[in-house]
Design goal:
The chain is of the alpha/beta class. Helices cover 27% and strands 33% of the residues. The longest helix has 12 residues.
């Protein structure tokens, strides 16, 4: 990770003296407040996470509402973007026949990604991978067939 990316991650890092329940329901001593990220920060983190992928690797970045919406636009990088709404609906272009990357801000267990994948495949798309800003799964999410790309990896302490 270069100095610019490190500075962006440090900007959104909130440390607690003792384990604290964070919005996702997990107990930890560090929280990453991705809402603070500017469009330029999001673009930089998207380049760090998925900048190595060819333009043809995926067609649409689908952001999981609410946390993944802004990052999905950055991950799309000129491709189409859509939103997986909390009610399971898709806002944006048709997913049918598309190669999709599912996008969230922070990944813990992958449960949210699995639920999203089920809905997205029901819309006729194939999921080729996942992208996030912070991967806290400790390597437990993603596979060779469907990788998880992130700008920063850490464990849930």
């Amino acid at each position: 990770m270069d100095a610019t990316t490190k500075a962006i991650i440090e900007k959104i890092t909130i440390s607690y003296d003792q384990p604290t329940k964070i919005p996702g329901g997990h107990m930890c001593t560090v929280f990453y407040d991705c809402v603070q990220l500017s469009p330029a920060d999001l673009a930089r983190l998207a380049a760090e996470a998925v900048g190595h992928l060819s333009q043809s690797y995926f067609d649409i970045a689908v952001g999981i509402a609410y946390s993944g919406i802004f990052f999905a636009a950055a991950v799309a990088g000129g491709r189409k973007a859509a939103i997986l709404q909390t009610d399971g609906g898709i806002c944006g272009p048709s997913l049918s026949g598309s190669k999709v990357v599912i996008v969230s801000d922070v990944v813990y267990t992958g449960g949210e990604l699995s639920r999203a994948e089920k809905i997205i495949t029901e819309h006729g798309a194939s999921v080729v991978g996942y992208a996030c800003i912070i991967d806290r799964s400790g390597g437990k999410v993603g596979s060779e067939a469907k990788p998880l790309w992130s700008a920063f990896e850490t464990v849930l302490e």
